[in-house]
């Protein structure tokens, strides 16, 4: 067996999985609190990628940046995350909040509308051509070797920043007052409201954080896979959702594990079979999990109420 | 309402007593304006009249239109109405959010195309030219079967999970369609060309069902209308039957339906399959009529378009979704590169003006808005001209009087650069703000919004009508859900299971 | 032999034992009430009987045949229909459609026959209409006439409860499970409901299992009363026997008295 290939595929999978995990987190957080499937989430990720690209272009582009690398990357991430965060909040405010007491189908269709609106707005504003982040020009093709397996700096950057964002999120949810409020709201919205928690504010915060994570994922995808385009959010959103479901929707560690699993599955399919079928593999995993363990790897069983 | 109660001596509690009815009644009677009156008039028309009127109009349509327009407005409306009726079975009646619907449309089309064309699966297997009486039923059956299989997970899945599985399926279908030109199963060395890949399947045979052999647009139009009438009649019978009642019951409350003796899972699968079968029929007609199928015929944009029809018309109401199909198809076809920009502009400003006239009351507020727009527009233009002369030297797409007015009021730069894009974002912000404001603040914001809209239209939107229409459909879905979730003709508060 | 019986039925959720080793019999034509404080497992009992969740242990017999493991709609078809404590009507459907829908289990016309409008299908459809009108007429004038075509959401609370019962009877059950039929009703309506439950047996011949909190109703209707507490049957007998049972009084008043004893 060719172990070098195996480990490079593995590392590719972890890198891809980190991006999916970040997207999945946003899905899972919103679903946990609102029981709403935010179809527009993938497109917020796309907008995040474009904001990051805008910052990069503003400072001279990937080939001749005006800033040193570190502050440039920090600025790209920060502005993309803040921009996506506010976009997420706006989507919640105008497309979901008016429907909070509506039948379940209403916010889903609204979400579909938002997704389509954002995609086509991006097409209108940014055009249909691919934009090049040129991550390898910007960061360099260097890296280090473990044995004969090369790990590029981009991979290190993507995986480590995804990991630190997740750690930050876990700390936020488990240690802070906001985190406690979020957990309470996701457990029982009405009861939380009666206990004096400002549910609206918790929901806004959730959308902001989830969307910011998606924005960061967008920048990472731009750096790691170079080209971005207006339709990139659709498939990535589906994969992120699949990751969230596989991990157990509503569960934060589940989203991370699910993201990693889907990333690895795709990378191994591409590496050992044929890249064309990676969607099919992800789809099969999703359907199998839904059929045999509908609550996902980390989810708790739900009890039907009559 | 109290006076109408038949037995005033029977003590009835006041808890919720007839409150809903009276509120609904008030709501209906209180619905003023042209739209309100039109809607209540439409509601009173009995279904049989609908059908007769529809058939009468459909029958004479070819006499009133040239072939190109009949294709765009006649045939497409009929095809989309067929699709919308099928989707209505799944979404409107059974309450299942099926986002893979467009894939069944595609499966029907591809099945027909592969079995009735010169398509080559391998170098030796070429040109299966089966006649339509065989391939149309096969296309319908294949779509229904795949619908059944995709619906299987719905046994375990509640609404949103089902939505994502089906959406994923649609995506998967597109991948297979676009990349299935060299399928090599394990052990099979030479690739089989299953779908024609990105180029699709060209040279599809026309429909041949014994003596029915449509070749012209008119013939396909009549063929589709007949299919539509048959399907609509069958569905109309079905919704009034035991099965139809069971579907609506499970949409209303799946658990209660199950406990009242309805096999919810089988009923869901049945709805899925019937919806898919109708989509498959539409697909087969499309394949034959455009003598080819292409992956692009079945993308997300088409899915959203069909959803926009069902939602706009009113999920659950057959007349509603057909009306939705008519309205959306006309918008779809008008907002296409084949319509001249001048006509589009005339329509754009016309619609806005009519909307203002209908929506803004009382008259002095309307006068303020119109006057304010003129004054503000003129002032901004003068200032812009003073700052940079080139900012007012751009071309205006509309001619005649409308063009003159636009030229007088709207800043039209010769080299707009990135300004239209910023203005587009500003326009969205302004429109969102309008939904949150009321009273004089709203009135005050309308003139600048109008000017912004005109600017964005002139410099950006009119050049890309296809993108504009999809932005419009996306926004329409959101707006309908927040403002009138039951759609134009729907009465239900549709609930998902 | 009893029409319906539970044999050692247990059900737990996570660590919580909701029903433990429950035995119960309901004879043909009997009206049995299940009482007990909140959280005693009464609604869970109904859910286990109707197949919403399977019991962990034990057997449920209808007409001598086990109904454990059947899908809820199959159990309904075998002859068990129920109402819900929190009303679960098909709110956007008309009053009559609500009742007609419940005839699904004992009718047969499929898609093909419906679309072809075969004579059999038309006969069956007429029969469903007649059945629905009959079921609704059982409630006097309240749910008939112009009410037929009103949406269910337009009904008052008490009429919704009546409609739920009418819907359950349209499923042609042998055993009718009523979950708090008088909840939220005023005294006059409660009295009417008591009479109605009696008539359901006397005129329509149903065997009835009722969960009820209102002791006047329980007293008025029950042949037998079963008291549950924490999933355990603590008393069974006539209303008077159960109402004076020390354990039942403890269950309702809390365990303080038991501690003192």
How would the blueprint of this fold be written?
The complex is a heterotrimer of chains A (306), B (497) and C (261).
Chain A: H1 3-34, H2 41-58, H3 69-96, H4 105-126, E1 131-132, H5 135-139, E2 143-146, E3 149-152, H6 153-175, H7 177-187, H8 189-194, H9 199-225, E4 227-228, H10 232-247, H11 252-272, H12 278-292
Antiparallel strand pairs in A: 1-4, 2-3
Helix pairs in contact in A: 1-6, 1-9, 1-10, 1-11, 2-3, 2-4, 2-9, 2-10, 3-9, 6-7, 6-9, 7-9, 10-11, 10-12, 11-12
Chain B: H1 19-30, H2 33-43, H3 47-64, H4 67-93, H5 101-115, H6 132-151, H7 159-179, E1 201-202, H8 217-239, H9 242-252, H10 254-259, H11 264-289, E2 292-293, H12 300-313, H13 318-334, H14 341-359, H15 363-387, H16 400-409, H17 419-436, H18 439-459, H19 465-483
Antiparallel strand pairs in B: 1-2
Helix pairs in contact in B: 3-8, 4-8, 4-11, 4-12, 4-13, 5-6, 5-7, 5-11, 6-11, 8-11, 9-11, 12-13, 12-19, 15-18, 17-18
Chain C: E1 4-13, E2 16-26, E3 31-35, H1 42-50, E4 57-62, E5 65-66, H2 72-78, E6 80-82, H3 95-101, H4 111-116, H5 119-137, H6 157-170, E7 175-179, H7 187-202, E8 207-211, H8 215-221, E9 224-229, E10 232-237, H9 239-243, H10 246-253, H11 256-260
Parallel strand pairs in C: 3-8, 3-9, 6-7, 7-8
Antiparallel strand pairs in C: 1-2, 1-4, 4-5, 9-10
Write a concise keyword list for the protein shown above.
heterotrimer, B: 497 residues, mainly alpha, two-stranded antiparallel ribbon, 67% helix, globular, disordered N terminus, C: 261 residues, alpha/beta, six-stranded mixed sheet, 11 helices, 10 strands, disordered C terminus
Write up what this structure looks like.
The complex is a heterotrimer of chains A (306), B (497) and C (261). Chain A has 306 residues and is mainly alpha-helical. Chain A has helices spanning 3-34, 41-58, 69-96, 105-126, 135-139, 153-175, 177-187, 189-194, 199-225, 232-247, 252-272, 278-292; strands at 131-132, 143-146, 149-152, 227-228. A two-stranded antiparallel sheet of chain A has the order 1-4. Chain A has a two-stranded antiparallel ribbon with strand order 2-3. The longest helix of chain A is centred in the first third of the chain and has 32 residues, at 3-34. Chain A is globular. Chain B has helices at 19-30, 33-43, 47-64, 67-93, 101-115, 132-151, 159-179, 217-239, 242-252, 254-259, 264-289, 300-313, 318-334, 341-359, 363-387, 400-409, 419-436, 439-459, 465-483; strands at 201-202, 292-293. Chain B has a two-stranded antiparallel ribbon. Chain B is globular. Helix content of chain C is 39%, strand content 23%. Chain C is globular. At the A-C interface, loops of A face helix 1 of C.
């Amino acid at each position: 067996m060719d172990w070098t290939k195996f480990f490079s595929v593995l590392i590719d999978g972890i890198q891809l999985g980190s991006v999916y995990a970040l997207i999945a987190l946003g899905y899972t957080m919103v679903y946990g609190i609102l029981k709403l499937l935010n179809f527009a989430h993938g497109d917020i990720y796309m907008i995040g990628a474009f904001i990051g690209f805008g910052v990069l272009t503003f400072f001279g582009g990937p080939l001749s940046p005006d800033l040193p690398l570190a502050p440039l990357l920090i600025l790209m991430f920060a502005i993309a995350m803040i921009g996506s965060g506010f976009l997420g909040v706006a989507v919640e405010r105008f497309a979901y909040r008016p429907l909070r007491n509506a039948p379940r189908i209403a916010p889903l269709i609204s979400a579909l509308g938002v997704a389509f609106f954002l995609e086509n707005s991006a097409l209108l504003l940014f055009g249909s051509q691919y934009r090049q982040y040129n991550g390898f020009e910007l960061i360099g093709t260097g890296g280090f070797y473990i044995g004969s397996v090369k790990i590029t700096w981009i991979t290190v950057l993507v995986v480590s920043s995804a990991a630190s964002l997740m750690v930050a999120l876990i700390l936020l949810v488990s240690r802070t007052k906001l985190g406690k409020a979020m957990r309470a709201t996701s457990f029982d919205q009405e009861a939380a409201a009666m206990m004096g928690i400002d549910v609206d504010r918790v929901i806004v915060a959730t959308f902001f954080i989830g969307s910011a994570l998606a924005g960061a994922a967008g920048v990472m995808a731009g750096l790691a896979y170079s080209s971005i385009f207006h339709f990139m959010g659709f498939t990535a959103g589906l994969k992120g959702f699949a990751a969230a479901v596989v991990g157990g929707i509503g569960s934060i560690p589940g989203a991370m594990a699910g993201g990693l699993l889907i990333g690895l599955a795709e990378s191994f399919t591409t590496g050992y079979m044929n890249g064309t079928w990676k969607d099919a593999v992800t789809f099969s995993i999703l359907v199998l999990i839904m059929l045999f363990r509908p609550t996902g790897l980390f989810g708790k069983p739900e009890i039907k109420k009559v | 309402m109290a006076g109408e109660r038949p037995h005033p001596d029977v003590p009835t509690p006041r808890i919720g007593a007839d409150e809903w009815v009276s509120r609904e009644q008030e709501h209906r009677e209180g619905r003023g304006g042209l739209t309100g009156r039109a809607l209540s008039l439409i509601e009173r028309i009995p279904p049989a009249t609908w059908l007769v009127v529809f058939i009468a109009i459909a029958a004479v349509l070819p006499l009133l239109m040239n072939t190109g327009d009949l294709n765009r407005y006649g045939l497409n409306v009929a095809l989309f109405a067929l699709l919308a009726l099928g989707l209505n079975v799944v979404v409107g009646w059974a309450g299942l959010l099926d986002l893979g619907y467009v894939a069944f449309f595609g499966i029907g089309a591809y099945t027909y195309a592969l079995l009735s064309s010169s398509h080559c699966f391998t170098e030796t297997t070429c040109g299966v030219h089966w006649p339509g009486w065989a391939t149309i039923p096969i296309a319908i059956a294949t779509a229904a079967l795949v619908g059944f299989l995709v619906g299987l997970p719905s046994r375990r899945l509640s609404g949103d999970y089902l939505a994502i599985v089906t959406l994923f399926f649609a995506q998967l279908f597109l991948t297979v369609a676009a990349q299935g030109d060299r399928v090599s199963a394990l052990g099979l060395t030479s690739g089989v060309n299953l779908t024609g890949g990105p180029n699709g399947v060209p040279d599809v045979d026309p429909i041949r069902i014994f003596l029915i052999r449509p070749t012209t647009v008119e013939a396909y139009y009549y063929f589709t209308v007949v299919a539509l009438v048959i399907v609509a009649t069958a569905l109309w019978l079905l919704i009034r039957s035991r099965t139809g009642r069971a579907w609506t019951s499970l949409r209303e409350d799946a658990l209660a339906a199950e406990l009242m003796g309805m096999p919810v899972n089988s009923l869901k699968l049945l709805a899925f399959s019937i919806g898919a079968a109708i989509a498959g029929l539409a697909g087969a007609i499309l394949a034959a009529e455009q003598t080819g199928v292409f992956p692009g015929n079945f993308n997300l944009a088409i899915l959203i378009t069909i959803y926009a029809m069902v939602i706009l018309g009113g999920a659950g109401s057959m007349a509603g979704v057909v009306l939705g199909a008519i309205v959306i198809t006309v918008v779809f076809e008008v907002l296409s590169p084949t319509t001249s920009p001048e006509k589009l502009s005339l329509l754009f400003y016309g619609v806005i003006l009519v909307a203002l006239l209908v929506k803004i009351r009382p008259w002095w507020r309307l006068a303020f808005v119109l006057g304010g727009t003129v004054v503000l527009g003129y002032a901004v233009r003068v200032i812009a001209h003073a700052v940079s002369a080139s900012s007012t030297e751009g071309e205006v797409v509309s001619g005649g009087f409308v063009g003159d007015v636009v030229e007088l009021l709207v800043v039209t730069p010769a080299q707009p650069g990135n300004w239209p894009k910023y203005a587009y974002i500003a326009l969205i912000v302004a429109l969102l703000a309008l939904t949150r404001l009321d009273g004089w603040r709203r009135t005050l914001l309308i003139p600048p919004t109008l000017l912004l809209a005109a600017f964005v239209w002139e410099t950006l939107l009119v050049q890309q009508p296809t993108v504009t229409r999809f932005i419009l459909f996306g926004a329409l879905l959101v707006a309908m859900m927040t403002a009138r979730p039951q759609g134009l003709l729907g009465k239900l508060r549709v609930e998902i299971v | 032999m009893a029409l319906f019986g539970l044999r050692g039925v247990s059900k737990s959720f996570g660590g919580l034992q909701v029903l433990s080793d429950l035995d119960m019999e309901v004879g043909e034509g009997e009206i049995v009430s299940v009482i007990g404080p909140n959280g005693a497992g009464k609604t869970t009992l109904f859910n286990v009987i109707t197949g919403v969740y399977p019991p962990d242990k034990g057997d449920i017999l209808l007409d001598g045949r086990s109904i454990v493991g059947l899908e809820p709609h199959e159990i309904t078809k075998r002859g068990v229909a129920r109402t819900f404590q929190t009303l679960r009507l098909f709110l956007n459907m008309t009053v009559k459609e609500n009742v007609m829908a419940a005839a699904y289990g004992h009718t047969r016309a499929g898609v093909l026959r419906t679309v072809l409008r075969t004579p059999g299908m038309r006969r069956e459809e007429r029969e469903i209409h007649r059945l629905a009108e009959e079921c609704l007429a059982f409630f006097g004038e309240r749910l008939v006439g112009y009410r037929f075509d009103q949406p269910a959401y337009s009904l008052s609370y008490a009429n919704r409860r009546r409609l739920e019962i009418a819907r359950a009877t349209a499923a042609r059950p042998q055993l009718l499970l009523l979950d708090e039929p008088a909840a939220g009703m005023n005294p006059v309506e409660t009295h009417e409901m008591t009479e109605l439950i009696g008539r359901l047996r006397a005129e329509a011949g149903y065997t009835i299992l009722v969960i009820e909190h209102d002791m006047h109703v329980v007293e008025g209707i029950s042949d037998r009363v079963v008291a549950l507490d924490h999933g355990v049957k603590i008393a069974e007998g006539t209303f008077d026997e159960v109402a004076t049972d020390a354990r039942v009084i403890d269950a309702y008043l809390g365990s303080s008295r038991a501690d003192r004893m």
